[in-house]
């Protein structure tokens, strides 16, 4: 009922803004707003579609509306003219943000992903001739769009975004992109002292996606027997987790708290990243680092590496039907993955690495 009331209010507000200009004469010089206001991986998934559209329409101008973390991801993307912040306390900033965006007179709005209804309302209230989203993924607000692209639950999230630009005539390009700066690369070189390492990334936002830390420790010991240097990575909130794993693996290092952009530069220098299903998995792919990804409760065919040259997936079936997802406190399905199996994959992937 609460969500229905929210939708009713937004539909009423939308009546004041829904007037649209006619169809753009051509997309060749169109001004396009891309909306992606959620997490790290969600934003990275959209970079393939952004690049595809710009390559197909090089004289177009692409703008982005994104979350704080998304803005960090997109800030050096050459395809993007300007980035607008969708802040956490968005309700109080909606009027000024709406005014600012409407002044751009966008020809098209593409909603890649949004967890907040206000992002959908914003995109649909800019007067653009084309407002494109995915059918059934708009919190009951499909009517706000001029076009909704059909999909099914087996479609990869990267493909779902590419389908939107393909609808506009763009040729699909599958590579994710992330641009590091010279300063960030120099920081990584200094931190790593020029050493190639293997990164173990044991955390994730959702516990049910995590391989137990004891398994990461067992894997680390197997790698250390081969004299492979290890870096344990994670975000600030995962400090206790990564420091405890590093303590159990004498000689390894763990990542101190740092910015996302410096973290990305360090991932770029890794010989291999071994990780759960989490945003840094896709960040490593975007900076072209080999990745070994561990999946069980989530489906790698929907949210795993996609058309990635240097990625290997270890996928096991979910053990609970239906999956408990965020209610899970002990991810039994991840226990199906053994350190020995992951080590064998890692050995093959590191065969040509100079460690």
Commentary on this structure:
The radius of gyration is 21 Å and the shape is globular. By secondary structure, the protein is an alpha/beta fold. The model has no long low-confidence stretch (mean pLDDT 92). Helix 1 runs parallel beside helix 6 (117-124), helix 3 packs parallel to helix 7 and helix 8 (182-192) packs across helix 11 (260-268). It folds into 2 domains: 2-167, Glycogen Phosphorylase B (Rossmann fold), CATH 3.40.50; 182-349, Rossmann fold (3-Layer(aba) Sandwich). It has helices spanning 2-14, 40-45, 47-56, 68-74, 94-102, 117-124, 157-167, 182-192, 213-224, 239-248, 260-268, 279-286, 300-303, 339-349, and strands at residues 31-36, 61-66, 80-85, 108-113, 130-134, 147-149, 198-201, 230-232, 253-254, 272-276, 291-295, 311-315.
Key structural traits:
single chain, 355 residues, alpha/beta, Rossmann fold, 2 domains, 6-stranded parallel β-sheet, 14 helices, 36% helix
Question: How would the blueprint of this fold be written?
Answer:
Blueprint: H1 2-14, E1 31-36, H2 40-45, H3 47-56, E2 61-66, H4 68-74, E3 80-85, H5 94-102, E4 108-113, H6 117-124, E5 130-134, E6 147-149, H7 157-167, H8 182-192, E7 198-201, H9 213-224, E8 230-232, H10 239-248, E9 253-254, H11 260-268, E10 272-276, H12 279-286, E11 291-295, H13 300-303, E12 311-315, H14 339-349
Parallel strand pairs: 1-2, 1-4, 2-3, 4-5, 5-6, 7-8, 7-10, 8-9, 10-11, 11-12
CATH architecture type of the largest domain: 3-Layer(aba) Sandwich
Query: How far apart are the first and last residues' alpha carbons, in Å?
Result: 58 Å
Query: Describe the biggest sheet?
Result: 6 strands, parallel
Described by the principal axes of the CA atoms, the overall outline is globular
- SS-derived structural category: alpha/beta
Please report the total strand number as a whole number. 12
The number of helical elements comes to 14
- Low-pLDDT runs of 5+ residues are none
Give the helices and strands as they follow along the chain: HEHHEHEHEHEEHHEHEHEHEHEHEH
Mean pLDDT equals 92
Strand order of the largest sheet: 3-2-1-4-5-6
CATH topology of the largest domain: Rossmann fold
CATH homologous superfamily heading of the largest domain: Glycogen Phosphorylase B
Number of domains as seen in the coordinates: 2
Q: State the name of the first-level CATH class of the largest domain.
A: Alpha Beta
Strand content: 15-25%
What is the alpha-carbon Rg in Å?
21 Å
- Amount of helix: 25-40%
């Amino acid at each position: 009922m609460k969500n229905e009331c929210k939708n009713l209010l937004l539909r009423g507000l939308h009546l004041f803004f829904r007037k649209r200009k006619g169809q753009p004469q051509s997309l060749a010089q169109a001004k396009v707003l891309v909306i992606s206001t959620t997490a790290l991986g969600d934003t990275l998934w959209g970079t393939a579609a952004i690049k595809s559209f710009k390559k197909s329409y090089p004289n177009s101008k692409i703008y982005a509306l994104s979350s704080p973390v998304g803005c960090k991801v997109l800030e050096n993307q050459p395809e993007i003219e300007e980035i607008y912040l969708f802040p956490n306390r968005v309700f109080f900033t909606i009027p000024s943000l709406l005014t600012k965006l409407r002044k751009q007179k966008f020809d098209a709005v593409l909603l890649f992903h949004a967890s907040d209804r206000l992002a959908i309302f914003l995109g649909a209230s800019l007067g653009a001739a084309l407002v494109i989203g995915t059918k059934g993924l708009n919190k009951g607000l499909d009517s706000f769009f001029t076009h909704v692209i059909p999909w099914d639950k087996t479609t990869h999230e990267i493909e779902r975004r590419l389908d939107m630009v393909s609808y506009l005539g763009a040729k699909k390009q599958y590579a994710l992109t992330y641009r590091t700066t010279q300063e960030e690369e120099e920081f990584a070189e200094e931190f790593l002292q020029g050493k190639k390492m293997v990164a173990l990334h044991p955390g994730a936002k959702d516990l049910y996606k995590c391989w137990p830390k004891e398994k990461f420790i067992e894997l680390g010991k197997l790698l250390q027997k081969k004299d492979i240097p290890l870096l344990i990575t994670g975000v600030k909130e995962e400090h206790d987790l990564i420091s405890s794993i590093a303590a159990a693996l004498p000689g390894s290092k763990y990542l101190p708290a740092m910015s996302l952009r410096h973290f990305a530069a360090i991932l770029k220098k890794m010989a291999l990243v071994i990780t759960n299903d989490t945003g840094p998995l896709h960040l490593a792919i975007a900076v072209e680092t080999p990745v070994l990804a561990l999946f069980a409760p989530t489906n790698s065919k929907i949210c795993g590496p996609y058309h990635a040259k240097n990625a290997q997936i270890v996928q096991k079936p979910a053990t609970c039907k239906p999956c408990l997802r965020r209610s899970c406190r002990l991810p039994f399905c991840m226990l199906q993955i053994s350190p020995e199996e992951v080590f064998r994959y890692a050995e093959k992937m590191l065969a040509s690495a100079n460690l």
